[in-house]
Structures are given as structure tokens and as C-alpha cells.
Amino acid sequence: MSAPRSLHDRVPLKPGTAPAILAAFITLGCAEFVRSGLYSGYLIPFIDAKNHMFHLPAAVGGLAWTTHLVADTLMRGPAGLLLQRHGPRKVVMAGAVLCLAALSLLLVAKSAWMILLIAALHGIGFSPFWPAAMNLTADAAKPGYEGRVLTVVSTSVMPLSALGTFTYALVAKNSDTVPLLTSVSLGGLALALTLLLPLRRLIQTTGGTDPVPGRPRLQKALMPALLPLLPAALMQTLTQSLAGAYIIRVMGDFGLELWQLVAVLVVGGVVAFASMPFTGRIADRGRAQLALTVGFLLVGLGMLSFLLHPPLAALFLIAPVVGLGYAFLTPGWAALVAQMLPESQRPAAWGVIMTVESAGQAGGPAVGAVALQAAGAGGPFGLAGVLALLTAAGYLVFRRHFQTPHLIAARTSGGVASEAVPGPGAGQAD
């Protein structure tokens, strides 16, 4: 009979890394709360309102949000390189300074061009937040827990985005002062929290893989692991955003009231979150590719079923299938990235991957609009289902491209695949 594990053994983080992860999480949470609320909850709904300060066309609000997202997307790759070279504290602090400057300038903005410039500056400043948080989390996770820890952090930030949108929409109805000062205050808090981030990464890398002096070696070592992940990253977000952007618009075509749609989504969400501890364990035990294949298969079948215009009762059966699919996808993708990328070069690579992911997320609504016009209410869901099934097939057909020498060696020696990722000194924190 084995002895019970101690609390130290149960915590999925390496010793001494929890404060850095908490600081990164709160910093990212503040930044996400502000940007979602500022654009979705304030500028887009109220930029043309007579009782507000801007008095600009409504399109400017949407264009500002797009400008911010484009700037964020384009800069995530360079932000990853900067994180790799200079460490999280300096880079995220510089980004937080830019964000705070942009939010402060918004107090005196009077024209459309100035708001667009501010949105671009805000996007550039925001770009290091996600790569820094994900890389710190991956570095801090114990071997065999990467997918689950990354999933917990990323999914915990998502509700803050929604909360920001609803909060700003509530407080901005009759006032510009509250949302703008809230943005500046939280931007200042995020800047202060960057002081708690580590100067260097939470792992030590060997001199042979140091990315600073050996850029040709960096590219040579990184490309075989990075390139297979790029189309997968695009499909990962494209299939999710393609249908999600139109679900409220087409709910009437499926005979749904808003509360019924919310109930269906809640059922799917509960199944997803309840299943993630188990699906995450599968992904972290060297079966990330299997988790992604099963996840895309379930999501694809669930999405395709919308082409049949199922009744409400059937939707309550479809929702758990799709929810279970996403329960496989989220930790599966996190584990695959953490397992495949060379540990010493992960920040730069993750920045590139996040750029591609953002491109898929931005392009999904446009592709969904074409599908909606061509095939009606079921079009976006049907196309998302087809793309999801094609992605599942891609993971099967090209499965050898999603393995690294580390994973192959671990399987050959009988070890856990994900345990091959950390290199020397991985258990030490700076």
C-alpha cells in the first residue's frame, strides 16, 4: 500500500514559482478586464451617444477594436522574442507602460484618428501579456501537468473578459468618467504588479540553446517543432470563432429564446469544465495528439448536427458532446505546445503561435459571414464542423510531425512523454 502524497507533491507547480504565476495571472486579468470592457462595453456601444464625450460615428468604436486586435496580433511574435531575450519583468513592464499611456491619452482624445492611434498603441502594449503568462505557467508547471496548469490559467482569465464587458456597459451608460478612470486605475495596478514578475524565466537553459548569441541555431532548432503547429493553431481558433460570432444572431432561426440558448450553453460549459481534470490528465500523459483528435472529432460532429436544425431537446444532448470536445481540445492543445517546443526557445515560438491563433480568431467571423449568407443559419456551424473534422483527420494523417525527439525518446525509455520537455535546471526558479 503506497503512502499518501504530501501537499507538496499534490501542487502541480514547481517549488517557489506560485507567486510569479499569481502575479502574472492578476496582471493579465486586469489587462483583459480593461480591454474587453473598454472596447466591447464602452467605445462600441457609446462612442456616438449624445450624452458622452466623443460624439463620433459608431463605426469608429468597432474600427478601434479591430485596430487594437491587429496591433496585438502583429506584435505577439516580436513580443515573444523580447521575452526570450530580456525576461518577463522588463518586457511586460514596458507593455504596461504603453497601455497606461494609451489609456491616459483616451481622456483627452477628441478625434477618430487619435482614438485609432491610441487603440494601436494599446494593442502593442498588450501584446506581451499573454505570451508572458503562458510561458511562465509552462515553465512553472511540474512535468506531466503542463496542459492542465495552462488550461486552468487561461480559462480562469476568460470570465474576466466577459465581466469587463458587462461592468463597463453598466457603469458607462450615463458617464465617461467612471469607465475611463477605471481603465487608468487598473492600468496602473497592472503596471505595479509587473514588479512582482521574475526578471528571468523560471527555468535555466543550457548555453548550447541560448537564443541570444545563436540566432541561426535558434531558427534551425525551432522550425521543425514550430512549423507543424502553425496550421493547427490557425484551425484551433478559426473553428471556434467561426460559429461563435453568430450564435446569438441565428438563435431565432433555431426557435430559441435567449434564456434557452443560455441554458444550452451552460450545460455544455458545465460538461467541459467538469471533464477537464480527466481530459487534461490524458493530454499530459503524452497523449496530447489523441486528445486533440478526439476533441475535434466531437466538436465537428456536434457542429454538423446544427445543419439538421435540431429541436431544443436535441440541443441539450448535443451541448454535452461539444462541451466534452472542448474539454479535450483546451488541455490537449496546451500540452502539445508545451511538449513540442524546445524549452529554451519556447517564448519566441509561443509568440509566433499566438499571432497565428489571433489571426484565426479574427478571420473566423468573416468566414462565418460568408457561410451564413451561402447556407443560412446552419452555415457557420456546418462549416465549422467540416473544418473541425478535417483538423482531426490532419492530426491523424500527419501524426509523425507532432512528435519531437524528446517525446520519442521518452516513449522509447518507457517514461511519460511530457516529462522529456524540461531540461537541466528546470526545477529551479530565479
Automatic annotation (TrEMBL):
InterPro entries documented for this protein: MFS, MFS_dom, MFS_trans_sf
Key words, A-Z: Membrane, Transmembrane, Transmembrane helix
Listed Pfam families: MFS_1 (PF07690)
SUPFAM superfamilies associated with the record: MFS general substrate transporter
Residue stretches spanning the membrane: 20-42, 54-71, 91-109, 115-137, 149-171, 177-199, 220-238, 258-278, 290-308, 314-336, 378-398
GO molecular function: transmembrane transporter activity
Stretches assigned to the Major facilitator superfamily (MFS) profile domain: 225-430
Name used for this protein in its record: MFS transporter
Taxonomic source organism: Deinococcus ficus
